[in-house]
Specification:
The protein has 477 residues and is of the alpha+beta class. The protein has two domains: 171 residues, no CATH class; 264 residues, no CATH class. 48% of the residues lie in helices and 14% in strands. It is globular, with a radius of gyration of 27 Å.
Length: 477
């Protein structure tokens, strides 16, 4: 007899779904109104208010009440999905593609989110970009539990959503020679093993008191508890060509419990990628870039104005340096510092109170990924602009020209680079995958003869084609 399919459904022990559904029906069936003063109303100067009668204006009639039985199944699925995605998110924040979830849940999806937000089960951000990015959703502090659920409709919602995510992979496969590439990628992913599950869980429990909050603990634990060999495939590919899978959000400290042999990272990857745009904008010569690549960071570390010292070193070595007006010192410094992988570390010294991880998230938020083209109310962006005024001008200009699409341009550029790197690795029959700006080498028989210096050389060569010379760090298990 065929075993009935079930899912390990997550739910909130202190949330009553009957109450949620009742509030949902109350919200959607109530007419939308606003208030206007009627004739005869007048200001009262003493109190700064208008005296007189006001009328209730109905903007929109309430909807018909949805069936409770249908809502119950949909809420079971949606709450489960939000819990699982927030648990797997480092910052307890997720974005749910509105069109994708509406395809799965129908017209109720938007009302369901607003009901959960109204009941403070989730926090729904106010900011979004129509057609580009959804609102950020975070799960408030509730007690989470799991139950085996065999409800056919709930399981269908889970399967339907998974197929929606896989549509992005199918679309990618349909373009060019990507079919063979993704097939090889999935073959490599399937060889990932959790070789010490007990050790991983003991490690997490041992440092439980050091986690900043309960979510951080749940996040780490979920990465081990949710590991499933059957799910080790590319789960989605976004419009920038970024590939997502299980390893994408696995904490670095947990990787030692998997059969990962090496990980090769591009230091300060996105700031380095912006150097590519600066090199093009300022027509920086190849001679200058090659000299900067050969120069050691320690040669100028003691100098406050690194750009000025770089210009001096270039001249002393007979390299023609462009006029300061066409190649400002701060641009020269930025390209050098990002090539040497010192960008984040330099700002740790500048900001003082932030550690390296906080510096990265802060500068991404206020400088590179912010839609704003000003430094108003952005303390760290102001400091960045003081150190790199001409670089900041270029960032502002690109934001305006791309209509806020700079982050996507950088991610698409990175995806293209790593796609080329991976294809060369697969030509060598190596078993590797990527995590955006890193290459992960699995400890499997296919990689017994993999030369780490040769792999590092391939990465360097692909970046060099774009005029970039990155610093590559290697982590070994």
């Amino acid at each position: 007899m065929r075993k009935r399919k079930t899912i390990n459904r997550a739910y909130l022990t202190d949330v009553n779904l009957d109450d949620v559904i009742s509030r949902h029906i109350e919200l959607v069936t109530s007419p939308k109104v606003h208030y206007e003063w009627v004739d005869g109303g007048k200001p009262d100067d003493r109190w700064g208010i208008r005296m007189g009668d006001f009328a209730t204006i109905v903007d929109k009639d309430g909807k018909k009440p949805p069936r409770k039985a249908i809502l119950l199944k949909k809420y079971k699925f949606l709450i489960h999905d939000i819990i699982m995605r927030c648990r797997a998110s480092k910052d307890n924040s997720v974005q749910l593609n509105y069109a994708r979830y509406t395809d799965v849940l129908g017209k109720h999806f938007g009302d369901m989110l607003h009901t959960l937000n109204d009941l403070e089960i989730i926090h729904l951000s106010n900011t979004y970009t129509m057609g580009k990015s959804s609102r950020h959703i975070s799960l408030n502090d509730w007690n989470i539990a799991f139950v085996e659920d065999g409800n056919i409709e709930v399981i269908e919602y889970v399967d339907r959503l998974k197929s929606k995510y896989l549509e992005s992979v199918k679309k990618y496969i349909s373009e060019g020679d990507n079919s063979t590439f993704i097939k090889r990628y999935n073959e490599c992913l399937s060889k990932l093993e959790l070789i010490n599950r007990t050790g991983a869980l003991e490690y997490i429990e041992g440092r439980k008191t050091s986690f900043n909050n309960q979510h951080s603990y749940n996040y780490y634990k979920s990465r081990i508890e949710d590991f499933n060999k059957g799910d080790l495939l590319v789960s989605s590919i976004d419009s920038n060509g970024r590939i997502y899978h299980y390893l994408t959000n696995l904490p670095k400290s947990l990787k030692k419990f998997f059969n990962i042999r090496w990980q090769l990272d591009i230091a300060n990857s996105h700031p380095l990628l912006f150097s590519y745009f600066l090199i093009k904008e300022y027509s920086i010569s190849k001679d200058i870039i090659l000299f900067l690549n050969l120069l050691q960071y320690n040669d100028i570390i003691e100098y406050h104005n690194k750009g000025k010292q770089l210009r001096k070193l270039l001249k002393n070595n007979g390299i023609d340096v462009q006029d300061i007006n066409t190649l400002p010192n701060d641009v020269l410094q930025y390209v050098f510092v990002t090539m040497k992988g010192r960008f984040w570390d330099d700002f740790v010294e500048v900001f003082h109170t932030l550690d390296r991880g906080e510096v990265k998230s802060t500068l991404f938020r206020e400088v590179f990924y912010s839609h704003s083209t000003t430094t108003r109310n952005r303390e760290y962006a102001k400091q960045f602009a003081q150190i790199y005024p001409n670089v900041w001008h270029s960032i502002r200009l690109m934001k305006k020209e791309s209509k806020g699409n700079l982050p996507n341009k950088m991610m698409a550029f990175e995806s293209k680079l790593f796609g080329s790197i991976l294809r060369r690795c697969y030509d060598n029959n190596w078993c590797v995958v990527s995590i955006h700006d890193a290459i992960v080498v699995l400890d499997v028989v296919e990689n017994e003869h993999l030369d780490i210096d040769e792999l590092k050389g391939i990465m360097s060569e692909e970046y060099a084609r774009c005029g970039l010379y990155p610093t590559i760090s290697i982590e070994m298990r």
